[in-house]
What we know:
InterPro entries: 14-3-3 (IPR000308), 14-3-3_dom_sf (IPR036815), 14-3-3_domain (IPR023410). This is 14-3-3 domain-containing protein. This protein has about 250 residues and is an all-alpha fold. The chain folds into two domains: about 35-145, 14-3-3 domain (Delta-Endotoxin, domain 1, Up-down Bundle), CATH 1.20.190.20; about 145-240, Up-down Bundle (Delta-Endotoxin, domain 1). It has ten helices and no strands. It has helices at about 5, 15-50, 50-65, 70-100, 105-140, 145-165, 170-195, 200-215, 220-235, 245-250. It starts with a helix and ends with a helix. Residues about 1-20 and about 20-30 have low confidence and may be disordered.
Amino acid sequence: EDPGEEQGESVEITEDSSSDVKETAENVQSEALNERQIILFKAELAEKASRFDDMAMFTKELAETDEEMSTVEQRMFASAYKQVIISRRKSWRTINDLLSDPSMNHDGRRRALKSAKCKIEEELLSYCREALSLISDHLIPNSSADEGQVTYRKLQGDYHRYLAEFQENGSRKLSMEASSFAYQEAHRLAQMYLELRNPVRLGVALNYSVFLHDMKASPEDAVDIARQAFDNAISEQKEIKDGSETKIIL
């Protein structure tokens, strides 16, 4: 038994002990920050070395810490998954084109092509689902910034769109609906909270218009979204002296 508890004594917290606790907490926080910086450095190194699968793995670690991502970390996350997915999208298109080539009708060639196509689709499915899970389970719940909320919903639209590109029937329909909803939500939030010439807002308009044009076969709606974003940014640029950043974006 604890003698102090039996005698009803209280434990005195002196100024020195309080300082020790505070110092320990600061050290722990500093160590955690350093560890996060190391993970980010590994991701940056993987990017420079064009090892994008590794880059995605490191940014996944950052996302799973359940801490709000900085703007730099958001960019790294988006870039990592974009790179691992875009390379496989290109491969899938190449294989798909070859399957329509009459010279590839030989059974052995077609089997090899279909096997390669299936493998690529499995990888695309895995990476897109992984990114979508990280966004919905970790990034959106831990984001307090308006720009972050818009960014993550735009990414949701992107990854669902990538899935719809190769899926069929019911699966494609679900991905199309999810992509459309995410882009609409990103567009709505961007219009509410971000400046007209904000790069994230312009990026949402661009990707949403691509979705409408390529996936929904709605070129008129796509042009309307893109033109509105462009015209609004131009009108705001005229009201400020330094519009160099906007010119580059547009």
